[in-house]
């Protein structure tokens, strides 16, 4: 008998244009996992509205993220690809799980602490920003996901998901699978090009600090050439040279070369050649993806077919788990 495949859930917010951090931290890894697992890849638009979005930009980016999934090599025949807001079970489960999550736990989340700092006096921080990890927990738990492939910055949220799941399971009876974060080796944390002690982020104010998946080759070259390194002048992988370390990680994530191989290749050479090669390698990886994204975006009907089919399957699967949750909590089932 064929063994049941383990389940994967992951998603990316359409809250800005995607960076190579999203690509190496998440997407590229997903592509590698799609044959072995039963995968749900979601465009998490409900997460994006925790901060204000221009409606027309949100619409455009949501489709673009979907096109990027496909262009990166996620096969719609093998995987369930969908848009979060099309599947109402996510919000329903999030409300239930909210009642099993403590405010203190949410206030301790590093991402919440850093994002909420941007709002003076705390007056205009939306409750959504605080509650967002509960929605993420719902995303994962209603598919009984075993693995969650994400970058390092999301591990704390997956830990919280496990805590919530365990609490619910202990209070009632086993309901949820315990999910585990799955972190890539090299792209786990791509750093900001201008301040390599910070994570590269699509919400940064300075466009020179990130590279977008859709950046033009000349922009990629310029950004890498200008990225902050150091005055040591040696291509070495260590914490005293965070800028160089970041470029080695990028090079390694693109080419599959080990850190040692890269160090050896550039021994006795300055940064210029190393930066140039890193930019060329990145362009070589991204250009075919960009061309495919543009082609997919021309075919809205094809995209619609994929996200409609994906939403149907996602709804079917997640409704079963949601009904289990409702029953255990004590809600009266809707009669058929
Ligand atoms: P988001 O949209 O911020 O990022 C999407 C994915 O990209 C990874 N990532 C990075 N990886 C390496 N280096 C970086 N600089 C970098 N920046 C981003 C993130 O770790 C993530 O894997 N809450 C999530 C989205 C989400 C989700 C989920 C993920 C919602 N529900 C359920 C997994 C499962 C988020 O905001 O990711």
Automatic annotation (TrEMBL):
Its EC number is 6.1.1.2. It comes from the Bacteria. SUPFAM superfamilies: Nucleotidylyl transferase. The keyword Ligase applies. It catalyses: tRNA(Trp) + L-tryptophan + ATP = L-tryptophyl-tRNA(Trp) + AMP + diphosphate + H(+). Pfam families: tRNA-synt_1b (PF00579). L-tryptophan binds at residue 139. A motif ('KMSKS' region) lies at residues 199-203. A motif ('HIGH' region) lies at residues 14-22. Belongs to the class-I aminoacyl-tRNA synthetase family. Catalyzes the attachment of tryptophan to tRNA(Trp). This is Tryptophan--tRNA ligase. The lineage of its organism: Bacteria, Bacillati, Bacillota, Clostridia, Eubacteriales.
